[in-house]
């Protein structure tokens, strides 16, 4: 049984070995919670690293091998991980099931798909739908022709806010404090490696808000033009961005703008945006 050791005016319960047990309901001062370690294993997977051995998973997540083994076994039981005949671990379908319930992801995608398909039929290139997640844009859906120009981003992948069409739309309509935080960072257009001027970016964001469109021309991985517009939700806040990406020289941004703007507005109406329900030119 434990006994009570009194130090000054503070009573402290110790066990038979003299060590103080961890307080109930709180984790020890050292070490990460189990959920953090398990999440570190899951987030070690990337588009370039879709399957891993246990040793690779341990290194990629920064988790000790014995802990990685114990967590991986439990994640296998829960369906969050799966293991192939070669013994390598991959993300399990159970996570896909859960992710499909995310309203800003799958729910938005379901509503947006018919509108995206209309825009795709008009361009036969890439049509993107993205939401802001932290300091990046998250690609919720992408419709692409088989022979469409090469782009860097996949569904579920992340895009920079400062150098993509959907990113600029989301950044332009973010709160001012968040914009200041992004602009205070050293920003670079990747993969070109071209530094971004904060003053020029601030002017670009103002223009995006004024026109309701973001137009971006990029040279890598191939010359492309992106035209993006905001998608508004039931409270008229910008909940997503919709864009088309076409080869540079294949279409003039001026020619794409009306279709992108009209599609984003129609999608906003379906999401209950009062501003988008008003006739063009009469909203606030």
UniProtKB/TrEMBL annotation:
Organism: Planobispora takensis
Annotated segments matching region Disordered: 1-30, 252-284
InterPro entries: GAF-like_dom_sf, HTH_MetabolicPath_Reg, Tscrpt_reg_IclR_C, Tscrpt_reg_IclR_N, WH-like_DNA-bd_sf, WH_DNA-bd_sf
Ranges where the HTH iclR-type domain occurs: 32-93
Classification via SMART domains: HTH_ICLR
Keywords attached to this entry: DNA-binding, Transcription, Transcription regulation
Ranges for domain IclR-ED: 94-273
UniProt protein name: IclR family transcriptional regulator
Cited Gene3D superfamilies: 3.30.450.40, Winged helix-like DNA-binding domain superfamily/Winged helix DNA-binding domain (1.10.10.10)
GO molecular-function term, one example from the UniProt record: DNA-binding transcription factor activity
One Pfam family per UniProt: HTH_IclR
GO biological process terms on file: negative regulation of DNA-templated transcription
